[in-house]
Each structure stands twice: as structure tokens, then as C-alpha cells.
Amino acid sequence: MEFEHKVVVITGASSGIGAACAVEFAKLSAKLSLISRNKDKLTKVGDQCQKINGLKPMIIIADISVEEDVNRIVEETINHFGKIDILVNNAGTCVMGKTQNGIEAFDRVMGTNVRGTFLLTDKIIPHLIKSKGNIVNISSILSTKPLSSMTAYCISKAALDMFTQCVALELGPKGVRVNSVNPGAIKTNLFVSAGLSKQENDEIFQFYEKVAPLQKIAKVEDVANIVVFLASDRAKCVTGSKYVVDCGAIIAEGLLN
């Protein structure tokens, strides 16, 4: 199988895109280190992956915005598997709010989406250099499409795109590839967790489905398939790239403003 003997670290693996990535890598016989703050949900994802390939994933309950947790993620994964081949930086948070809603929301979003991702990547880089591995960052089309009601989130994803390119430039000569996947609206709990009601959340998806050129909404599995491709040897000449998965939303005039 394509990822047999490969060790994959996935943050935010208890639900949504992260859980879908875990399942897709499990189907390809990867050894998994799954990270999340939610023990119950993460354990269920781990059990699902084990049923697929018979391999028991490592479950680590941690918050990537906490440096001590980041150190523990790397130490426990290396102690258990001996190496790291792939890092999927998926963990992220979103808070609905404009600039005048205060700095607390900004700090919370940036602490996880940017600082936490930076911290974990920095700690894992030496191991990826040894394994000639790669990194896939989960960004968003909002990295280039401003949405004033999600200002902090947009800023964080723009930063993540630049981080992807900078690290790709830095690590390319050392044989490590770095890419990002930038989804549009995906049917996850992101917007509800950010503060929207279920009705508001449903209205967003209905509008998106109507206006997007493909007139549908991508599923988490669609994103996971691109992540797996970028992490594989099939993408061995791809680095510093941004793969958009949005059913054409980014080219739809007036979809985001």
C-alpha cells in the first residue's frame, strides 16, 4: 500500500477534515498519530481507523497552542513510532467577528491557526528532514477572499499560505515538500462552532450551493483525497503550491464580499 511504513501526524483529527484525512490514510495502511483536544471524538476516529487497516493509531490529547503540549506530541510520536514522515496541519479555530469586536477573538484564532501550527511544524521539521517527508497545511479560500465577519480567520489563513511558501522555500533543498489545501465551504461544524446558529449555517450552505459554478458543496472526503495526493510520491515534484477545493467558489463573482 502507498503509505505502508509511513508515519502521519494529523492535528484536529477528531472531526471534519482531520477525521476524514485519518480515514483516508488508514485505507492506505499509514501509521497514524492523531491529535485533538476532544478525547471522546478522537478515540472514535482512532477506532474507525483501526477497523480499516488493523493498525492501532496513537491518540494524543493536546492543544497545539500550548507549547508543552506541542513538545509532548513530538516526543510521544517519536518514542512510539521512531520517526515522522508526514505532518498534516489541520487544527484550527474560527470566531465570528469584525475588527471592532476586540482583540480576544483575534488572539484566540491566531494562537491556534498560526502560532500553534508554527510551533508544531518547527518541532517536527528535524524529523521530516531525516525521513525526506512532507507537510500539508489546511488553509482556506478565505486566505485571499476577504470576509469582514471573519476577519481574524481570514488573516490567519493568509498567514498560513505565506508560511507554507516560506517553509517550502526553506526546506526544498533538504528534500522536504510543503503544500496547502484551501477548501471553500465544507459541511462541517466550523461556522456553528464560530457562533452561528444552525439556521444561519444552513443558509450559508444553501446560498453557496446555488452560486458556486458546480452548484454543490465539497465533502470532507474531497479535501482528504487532495491531502493524500499531496502527501504521496505522486506529488513528488509539487511544493509551495496551493490546491483549491471549493466547487469553483473562488471564481464566482459576488459569492464572497
Structure report:
Keywords: Oxidoreductase. This protein is an alpha/beta fold and 257 residues long. It has one domain: NAD(P)-binding Rossmann-like Domain (Rossmann fold, 3-Layer(aba) Sandwich), CATH 3.40.50. It is 48% helix and 14% strand. The chain has helices spanning 16-27, 39-53, 67-81, 103-131, 151-171, 190-194, 198-211, 220-231, and strands spanning 7-11, 31-36, 58-61, 86-89, 134-138, 177-183, 242-245. β4 (86-89), α4 (103-131) and β5 (134-138) form a beta-alpha-beta unit. The radius of gyration is 17 Å and the shape is globular. The mean pLDDT is 92.
Question: TL;DR of this structure?
Answer:
This protein is α/β, with parallel strands linked by helices. The chain has 8 helices and 7 strands, in the order βαβαβαβαβαβαααβ.
Q: What is the CATH top level name?
A: Alpha Beta
Number of helices: 8
| Straight-line N-to-C gap | 44 Å
The helical percent reads: 40-55%
Most strands sheet: 7 strands, parallel
Please mark out the parts with pLDDT under 50 across 5 or more consecutive residues, or reply none: none
Structural class: alpha/beta
Write down the domain tally. Answer: 1
Give the averaged pLDDT, no decimals.
92
Which helices and strands, and how do they pair?
Layout: E1 7-11, H1 16-27, E2 31-36, H2 39-53, E3 58-61, H3 67-81, E4 86-89, H4 103-131, E5 134-138, H5 151-171, E6 177-183, H6 190-194, H7 198-211, H8 220-231, E7 242-245
Parallel strand pairs: 1-2, 1-4, 2-3, 4-5, 5-6, 6-7
Helix pairs in contact: 1-2, 1-8, 3-4, 4-5
